[in-house]
């Protein structure tokens, strides 16, 4: 992610997420929701899904670096704020280039240069907190160079270069520094990641309107839009409606300093990958569905709708396990049930599939609450982390 703090700037360690960080998150989430264009540009295709996965992995890494940075020190001085705004500009360029990054050389190069700017700003900011960032900079910079070269070369080679960049970043935490040296401010860390989920869910609702743009506002379109909103609301309820934030902060507080970095990686880096990808894939499916609200769809857009919800629930189960909450058999059953509903859109129409997905998820959450499945967390021993 980044190099561990050395203690400098700890007097400015944040307790709450600043409005500038929320502004930053809005731009970042715009960038990752642009991935729906990669998936849904020609309906929904496996190649588009692969492109989205590669780009998301590289972007999620560097975003995590910014979270760990601002968790250490609030960007409150004018130079720090200007640098953070410059990083936002880099993410904006990336977002603008994403739709055609694999098909147009100029856009491929632009996404690489935008990523290089994001990496450079991150390093410049982190040098004000901890000079150990120079150990990580070659990895981040190397990934940016690989992305730039991918834009220049294009074709099949671009996929391999993106995959190499992603593999380099994934290996970095295990090659560079002991994770135990990281310091985590629980309240800020939890709140910052929660803001990303809620903004991403909001952007998925915006995709409902974008999908319907330019098409007649029929009764079928209105019904599909309301059902899409209901499904997004249920995803919100699954995460925020059962006090997972409070449980996550408690898990950090009862975990020793040496174990907090691993908990952060498990709960908020790895578990968030399927959750955010699930939102992106679901949004892509909804965007396609809103273009044909009264019709059946090909199987791939229908699979995107079903797998988006299933991915989100799978990530949620990983997250809950990491913070010590009990396993929810209802959520696991809902994930499998939603995945099995993909054929509904092919046979009965996209609105029917979205309605059934919402019904399955609502039933799982209601049963969970009624039986108390999610009410008791498993305490972790001090200094330990759930595997």
* CATH C-level class of the largest domain: Mainly Alpha
Strand proportion: under 5%
The end-to-end span amounts to 20 Å
> Quick one: overall form?
globular
CATH architecture of the largest domain: Up-down Bundle
Q: Find the structural class using helix and strand composition.
A: mainly alpha
Write down the domain tally: 2
CATH topology of the largest domain: I/LWEQ domain
Q: Biggest β-sheet: count, sense, barrel? A: none
Describe the model:
The protein has 387 residues and is mainly α. The protein has two domains: 10-181, no CATH class; 187-371, I/LWEQ domain, CATH 1.20.1410. The protein has helices at residues 19-33, 35-40, 46-72, 78-97, 105-126, 137-153, 155-176, 186-212, 219-240, 244-254, 257-270, 272-291, 299-322, 329-340, 342-347, 350-371. The longest helix has 27 residues, at 46-72. The model is unreliable at 1-11 and 376-387 (pLDDT under 50).
Q: What are the key terms here?
A:
single chain, 387 residues, mainly alpha, globular
Q: Can you describe this structure in just a few lines?
A:
The chain is mainly α and 387 residues long. The protein contains 16 helices and no strands.
């Amino acid at each position: 992610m980044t190099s561990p703090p050395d203690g400098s700037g700890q007097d400015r360690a944040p307790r709450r997420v600043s409005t500038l960080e929320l502004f930053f998150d809005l731009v970042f989430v715009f960038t990752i929701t642009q991935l729906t264009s990669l998936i849904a540009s020609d309906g929904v295709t496996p190649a588009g899904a692969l492109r989205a996965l590669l780009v998301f992995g590289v972007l999620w890494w560097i975003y995590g670096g910014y979270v760990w940075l601002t968790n250490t020190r609030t960007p409150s001085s004018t130079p720090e704020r200007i640098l953070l705004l410059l990083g936002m500009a880099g993410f904006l360029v990336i977002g603008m280039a994403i739709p055609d990054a694999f098909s147009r050389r100029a856009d491929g190069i632009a996404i690489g240069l935008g990523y290089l700017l994001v990496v450079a700003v991150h390093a410049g900011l982190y040098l004000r907190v901890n000079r150990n960032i120079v150990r990580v900079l070659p990895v981040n910079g190397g990934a940016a160079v690989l992305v730039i070269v991918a834009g220049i070369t294009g074709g099949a080679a671009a996929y391999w270069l993106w995959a190499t960049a992603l593999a380099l970043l994934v290996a970095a935490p295990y090659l560079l520094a002991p994770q135990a040296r990281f310091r985590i401010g629980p309240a800020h860390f939890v709140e910052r990641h929660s803001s990303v989920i809620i903004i991403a869910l909001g952007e998925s609702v915006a995709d409902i309107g974008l999908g319907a743009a330019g098409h007649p506002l029929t009764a079928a379109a209105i019904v599909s839009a309301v059902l899409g909103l209901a499904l997004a609301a249920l995803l919100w309820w699954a995460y925020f409606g059962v006090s997972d934030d409070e449980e996550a902060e408690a898990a950090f507080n009862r975990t020793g300093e040496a174990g907090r970095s691993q908990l952060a990686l498990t709960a908020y880096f790895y578990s968030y990958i399927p959750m955010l990808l699930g939102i992106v894939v679901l949004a892509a499916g909804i965007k396609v569905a809103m273009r044909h609200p009264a019709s059946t769809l090909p199987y791939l857009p229908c699979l995107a709708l079903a797998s988006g919800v299933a991915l989100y629930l799978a990530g949620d189960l990983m997250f809950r396990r990491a913070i010590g909450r009990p396993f929810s058999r209802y959520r696991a059953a809902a994930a499998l049930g939603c995945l099995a509903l993909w054929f509904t859109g092919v046979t009965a129409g996209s609105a029917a599939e979205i309605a059934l997905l919402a019904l399955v998820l609502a039933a799982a959450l209601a049963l969970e609450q009624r039986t108390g499945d999610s009410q008791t967390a498993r305490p972790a021993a001090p200094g330990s982390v759930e595997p």
